Amino acid sequence: MEARRSGNYEASIWDDDYVQSLTTPYMIVKYEDKHMEKDLHVTALQFRLLRQHGYHVPQEVFSSFMDEAGNFKSGIAGDVKGILFLYEASFLSLEDERILDLAKDFLIHHLTERLHQITDESSLAEQIRHALELPLHRRVQKIEAKWFINVYETRFDANFILLELAKLDFNMVQAKYQDEIKHVSRWHKETGLSEKLGFARHRLAESFLWAVGFTPEPHFGGTLMDWIASRVHADPHARFEVLLFHAYFSITNPINKKELRSLEQYPGIIRWPPMVFRLADDLGTSDEMKKVDVPKSIQCYMNETGCSEEDAREYIKHLIHATLKKMSKDILMEKPFKDFGTAAMNLARISLCMYQYGDGFGVPHHETKDNLVSLIVEPFPMP
């Protein structure tokens, strides 16, 4: 057999030694690490945004801001924007993440201290006050959107084209909400349920707020209407597990039998949001303890341990925080279902909102009214 002739080609300069020697200061991991180490604000913002979308960024990205003893360096307290963003990021922690738990205590102290030192009513001062009241990750999206637009507008570096677009988007969604609540109000009047059910609480507007907090997207209008219809005369202690299943069938189109069966693999998506609702309700309606036959979680804990009501309330707050961590893992990190997962997270958020200052559903206080007026009555003035 004739041997194959050589083409006498020159040796390639791209040998393995040369290829392996290639280097650049802009390598993604090294460049990001170097940049993040210098900027707490950027690190915390990236961490929060990635975790919100289900990417498991390790808590160790904050290690460069800690000393050898494992505590956060006192020097970062001077970076007010940085520690504010780290505070917001810490609420996306999972169970047993010591760094983020440590950060929260450290940051509450320093942000409170800084807030007292800020003499002018700047947008930064308002953001700190707002975050300490309730962190961003636990707030209702549409209510928060309007608040943020108003705050952003006061910034000297505001992008007014972006600002106008945000206002227009909010106003267009608000117009959709107005159509929906008009439709439900008309239905409610025509059925005459208010007269027929004299024993029931008539909470059409408050039920609408629940619905918007649960599924704020306009294309889920059917889900919104179904929710309101089920809530407007409902017992406030209705089984939210059932309502979550109802939401799943309303949001998911088409229904996938395989996906439906997989709900059994992710029980947390059904279990944890109603638990947050139940506990938040108990905190907000604890004044009713003497009026009802069924004891609330606060009363149960007091009976079991012999502690004071104040200590019992702190324990229930701890349970809410622990449950929200479980939600972050089972819903955000596992990402079993996109739209339904978002709705499940929103159920916890609207529960915290409704009972933040007391019983915002049964005995609507001015915060509930303010939220409703903001969402469905007052548009942004446009030029």
TrEMBL record:
Q: Where is the Terpene synthase metal-binding domain?
A: 240-325
State the InterPro entries in the record.
Isoprenoid_synthase_dom_sf, Terpene_synth_N, Terpene_synth_N_sf, Terpene_synthase-like, Terpene_synthase_metal-bd, Terpenoid_cyclase/PrenylTrfase
Q: Which UniProt keywords apply?
A: Metal-binding
Q: Which residues form a coiled coil?
A: none
Per UniProt, residues of the Terpene synthase N-terminal domain are: 32-132
| Pfam families membership | Terpene_synth, Terpene_synth_C
Q: Which PANTHER family match?
A: (-)-ALPHA-TERPINEOL SYNTHASE-LIKE (PTHR31225:SF256), OS04G0344100 PROTEIN-RELATED (PTHR31225)
Protein name listed in UniProt: Uncharacterized protein
High-level lineage = Eukaryota, Viridiplantae, Streptophyta, Embryophyta, Tracheophyta
